């Protein structure tokens, strides 16, 4: 495949999530120009609307925006934690990108989620099962991908924990007994356990102290370079976006207001909201 | 003595009314059609509390006819309080014949054991099940476990086996070891010991499971494959009693009960009371072929 063809890995079109009953004008009466995502006619809430983008293999895409801008919603829709109201998405490794992954059976969605994606949540409790040991959590992902050999599962788990700098002798301990940064690293180890081509990172460093933040970001960047995995990084923190991503979408009130190369957006923001965001970065 | 009939005439044959029996039989047919799938059913009121064997009673009473020969066992014993009371109740409601002998019975209701003696095509084996949901230990919400069964999403169950192996060096599930039925549903085999699990697979008998409190019926039809969950390198095995043998009969190829004596010492005895009686009497016995037995002894 030549580079000119730009073989996308993930193509998203028109992704929309509305809570409540939308009216005919719900989409035209909400958004950044109205400074609101609540429809004045019906009180329905537009969490995100008309989000479209392509993600290329090995690329890191940032989604930045204030709380309530819909950035986490986009990720939750794409990793099947929530059902979209409208929208389509195609993932190249699934059926060669010919089938809309958002409209297949629950079983197929689970297959995609466990074989082709990894998700790291802000709160380790969402991504890890705290009743299982850290090794067990990694085993869960491997078992879901069809590995049924305890010896080999443990080998792979210790390799991953070593990679994410979690002491291997704590493999059989519960993640509840770990520090926040360590829990986050176990979550990352679980997410990359079976080489997914696509990784979602939802506010992974929020709530960690600064030195641990730096370590986790370093780890993510290393893994990205080593494994060449494509990532969607959601953050409200522009320095995280600047450090990790190649390209960025800026969201406000459920809409994408600006998109482009991360450097460009940070150097020369076009939309007033982005300008505000960048100027408040110190 | 005057026959005791005064109140019996006020009840329908086999206590439950005919339309409810029909409903239970219809649900049983569905359970047989989808091996290992838990079918919700009415679980009507019985003269004993739900959870004390009502599921088994419902199944037995909806199937039993006057010509049936009934055997009731409780943890292998025909003589325990639970077995005696259930047997007497069913007998008084149907006037059917009862027996201790596994070979003579046409209907066998059991709590937590399969008989040591092999069962036949013309027999139906009914389990009283306390907890029909094998995934309950890893997922407490019913709507989620149903979804997990629907999508055959059993990773959590497997992880709990992995965890058990990692913590204890073996899969520490004594009774109620989860099994996969017909390559599809994971099923709780009621808490029968691991010893009995191989006897569920490719058996000649129809196995029916009733959970009264949880209102679920399920089934393993004859000649259905039932596999205990095992990893490629961590295998299922049945209980091992080492060099222990039954103190009465010196028998080793049956599930043994451990008896503690007043002086603190221990002895072992064959758990299945009818099987023990036959061994003691020197009668002919025809036990199940248990492929795991060949692996452990001699």
Features of this protein?
A: 282 residues; alpha/beta; three-stranded antiparallel sheet; 10 helices; 35% helix; globular; B: 298 residues; Rossmann fold
Indicate the overall shape of chain B. Answer: globular
The CATH superfamily of the domain at 8-134 and 176-228 in chain B is known as Bacterial phosphonate metabolism protein PhnH
- What kind of oligomer do you see? heterodimer
Give the proportion of residues in helices of chain B: 25-40%
CATH names the topology of chain A as Rossmann fold
Q: Return residue spans of chain A where pLDDT drops below 50 for at least 5 consecutive residues.
A: none
Structural class, judged by helices and strands of chain B?
A: alpha/beta
Whole-angstrom Rg of chain A: 19 Å
- Biggest contact: A-B, 21 and 19 residues
Secondary structure: number of strands of chain A: 9
List the strand order in the largest sheet of chain A.
5-6-7-3-8-9
Strand order of the largest sheet of chain B: 1-9-8-5-4-2-3
Task: Note the run of SSEs of chain A as H and E.
Answer: EEEHEHEHHHHEHEHEEHH
Label the CATH architecture of chain A.
3-Layer(aba) Sandwich
Describe the protein's architecture and organization.
The complex is a heterodimer of chains A (282) and B (298). Chain A has 282 residues and is of the alpha/beta class. Chain A has a single domain, classed as Rossmann fold (3-Layer(aba) Sandwich). Chain A has 10 helices and 9 strands. Chain A has a 6-stranded mixed β-sheet, with helices on both faces. Chain A has a 3-stranded antiparallel β-sheet with strand order 2-1-4, covered by helices on one side. In chain A, helix 6 runs parallel beside helix 7. The radius of gyration of chain A is 19 Å and the shape is globular. Chain B has a domain of 180 residues: Rossmann fold. In chain B, the strands form 3 sheets. A 7-stranded mixed β-sheet of chain B has the order 1-9-8-5-4-2-3. A 3-stranded antiparallel β-sheet of chain B has the order 7-6-10, with no helix packed on it. In chain B, strands 11-12 form a two-stranded antiparallel sheet. In chain B, a hairpin with a 3-residue loop joins strand 6 and strand 7. The termini of chain B are far apart. The model of chain B has no long low-confidence stretch (mean pLDDT 92). The interface between A and B is medium-sized, with 21 and 19 residues.
